[in-house]
Design brief:
Blueprint lengths: L1 H7 L3 E7 L2 E6 L2 E6 L8 E3 L7 H11 L6 E3 L11 H8 L3 E3 L24 H4 L15 E3 L12 E5 L8 E5 L4 E5 L10 H6 L15 H14 L3 E4 L5 E2 H13 L1 H4 L10
Parallel strand pairs: 4-5, 5-6, 6-7, 10-11
Antiparallel strand pairs: 1-2, 2-3, 3-4, 8-9, 9-10, 11-12
Helix pairs in contact: 6-7
Catalytic activity: 3',5'-cyclic CMP + H2O = CMP + H(+); 3',5'-cyclic UMP + H2O = UMP + H(+)
Protein name: Glyoxylase, beta-lactamase superfamily II
InterPro entries: Metallo-B-lactamas, NDM-1-like, RibonucZ/Hydroxyglut_hydro
Length: 269
């Protein structure tokens, strides 16, 4: 554990999104805490990269009075579930995901391998090394409610936003139009190591090297745009809000085919 803390020191940062929303970056992917400081009722959205268990627990211990009510997964790629097994065992809480995502979270089905041929930078070039194997939460993973409510929260609903993965979801709160997007849209060019290191803020579609259905990915962008979010917390990059978000979503939707879909790749028709 001490070694894990050593190698991950300096690789986290926090962003206060709203009084009850905190985003924690683990290396290059965000996890989100939903709940007011001091609360005994809160949830964790995604669990980031492996080796960051202690960081997540430390933030949670400082911010809340007890374990979360639930862990919600936007999807099951390695960088979003890296600590989920350890956290579930430590806290003893249920984990929820879309039913189409559960085979990848119960050891039944591996994700399609990443595709480095999409190009765009070193992160894409190295993606052949990224794990695509299923994890196994066994009987500790549950399907999200069919009525689209989010367990452990009030006022939140989940939205199916496939394309990046079959069971990808985003979370939306109507009261303040706040969206937790996962990887349906992201605010950094994830294919480029330079952009990732600089955390250059610009709206993009899902990470190209792991996205397998571009038609569904575009439909998910359109679905998000129709929600008219005021603030978006993405799986990679900084928070976006206001007019910049509005115009960026419009541009992403209108120019998705030419700007977002790779010119080549094994998952490009």
């Amino acid at each position: 554990m001490a070694f894990d803390n050593l190698i991950t020191s300096g690789m986290t940062s926090v962003e206060e999104v709203a009084p009850d929303i905190l985003s924690l970056r683990t290396l290059f992917v965000n996890v989100v805490f939903i709940g007011k400081p001091g609360s005994r009722s809160w949830v964790l959205v995604d669990t980031g990269m492996s080796k960051f268990t202690n960081h997540i627990v430390d933030v949670a211990t400082e911010r809340f009075q007890g374990p979360p009510s639930a862990i919600i997964l936007t999807h099951g790629h390695f960088d979003h579930v890296g600590t989920v097994i350890e956290l579930e065992q430590f806290w003893g809480v249920p984990v929820y995901a879309h039913p189409l995502e559960i085979p990848y979270l119960t050891g039944l089905k591996n994700y399609p391998p990443a595709d480095p041929s999409v190009g765009g930078g070193l992160m894409a070039h190295l993606s052949f090394t990224y794990p695509n194997e299923a994890i196994n939460l066994d009987d500790r993973i549950f399907s999200l409610p069919q009525n689209h409510t989010v367990p452990g929260t009030k006022g939140w609903n989940w939205i199916h936003t496939p394309g990046h993965t079959p069971g990808h979801i985003s979370l939306f709160r109507e009261a303040d139009r706040l969206l937790i997007a996962g990887d349906a849209i992201i605010s950094v060019k994830q294919e480029s190591l330079w952009s990732v290191l600089l955390q250059d803020k610009q709206l993009h579609g899902p990470p190209a090297y792991f996205t397998t259905d571009w038609e569904e990915a575009h439909e998910s962008v359109q679905r998000i745009r129709q929600l008219e979010p005021r603030t978006v917390v993405t799986g990679h990059g900084h928070v976006l809000s206001g007019e910049m978000l509005h115009e960026s979503l419009r541009h992403l939707d209108m120019h998705f085919e030419e700007d977002t879909v790779p010119k080549q790749g094994k998952y490009v028709e």
